[in-house]
Amino acid sequence: MKTIVIIGAAATLLMPLRIAAQAQMETIYKFAGTPDGAAPQGLAAGPNGVLYGMTADGGSLGYGTVFQLTPPSTGSGPWTESILYEFTSSGGGTNPFSAPVLGKDGSIYGATGDVSTIFQLQPPAAPDGAWTETVLYPPDEGDPVMEFDHGLIVGPNEELYAAGFSGGDDSCGGVVGLTPPSVSGKWSVSMEYTFPGGNSGCKPTGIAISADGVIYGVTLYGGTYGQGIVFALTPSPMPYQYTETVLYNFTGGTDGGLPSEPPILVPIQNPDAALAIYGTTSAGGTAGFGGVFELLPNIYTNTWTESIAFSFVSGKLPSSALLNYNGDFYGTMAAGTSPGDAGGSIFQLYPNYYGILNETALHNFKGPAGPSGNLVMDKNGVLYGTTVAGPGPTGLGTVYRVKP
């Protein structure tokens, strides 16, 4: 991923003129419910173009699945879906609402919603063997029940972190950390932070982590104006203790409000800082449909400055974290802004000559398609994603690809 130049009012370099090309959209797999699953929740990109994902429903037992999609060996033809694991009602978690993440050892990690677990799927020793699930959280009855709607992130040392939308001491959610064993044995689990509500935020909707171990995130509610916050959790010298700093309070006005998807950290060309925080809001902005916010640090004053880099006008309800590539941002919207336009869209934001973001719709979905989960991009710049429903009113979801 290349470093980008700061956009909007903080632009430091004029960008070349860009004209967006027409995108090519293709559905590469349609879910049938049984036995392959329904309502897919995003993807993880593996080696050799293989995609991994989870479905919130379906499978032979109705509790969701973990699946693998393998591209055709000839470059054209149908993709092959394989069910790696089916969730049951026996304590291993059910109904995942997020994408999995991949470990260096070939393991698949994920979180489930209804039973609030974090799990590891280890690949079989033999080619035709079964994948093995190990529940990493909750390990004890005293651990809080968390709602992990936005999945996991991987830290600098292969540790896992998850933001719980609910649970904790004040039911405002928290951040859980899991550290793998050095040789063998159980993972270490710690409650890194629980949100008390009020000005400290409530209901985290996603996190990101920097190379120095600082966790950044957003909450849907709370803060000075009740419209959510951007926060940083800084590790202290004491193990498993983090200190929260509120970096910004959304007002719900032109600056945005109610951030509902995880933020991203982007390297920047700025002598005062190494990274900026970007994300989306589902409310506020100039048209009231939310927008893309930009948060820039000043290391000399220890403050952050927020600005809206783009206000949504042709779509609403962001349904994925932003994906940054070569200075462009990609994302999805769950719905349009005109009556009857409920299918959602895939969008691309790119800077013009003056560094101001322009939008192009890469694809507008028809009917109740509902783009869901994250986007991933391959080495050729092709985007892959999922829809929770469609095609058609009785559809159970798809995996698609689009070439910007």
Tell me about this structure.
It is a single chain. With 404 residues, this protein is mainly β. It has a single domain (8-403), classed as Neuraminidase (6 Propeller), CATH 2.120.10. 0% of the residues lie in helices and 45% in strands. It has strands at residues 24-30, 38-45, 51-57, 65-70, 80-86, 101-102, 108-111, 118-122, 132-137, 152-154, 160-164, 174-179, 188-194, 202-209, 215-221, 229-235, 242-249, 264-267, 275-281, 291-298, 303-311, 315-318, 323-325, 328-336, 345-351, 357-364, 371-377, 383-387, 398-403. Strands 22, 23, 24, 25 and 26 form a five-stranded antiparallel sheet that branches. β16 and β17 form a beta hairpin. Residues 1-20 have low confidence and may be disordered.
Give short descriptive properties of this protein.
single chain, 404 residues, Neuraminidase, five-stranded antiparallel sheet, four-stranded antiparallel sheet, 0% helix, globular
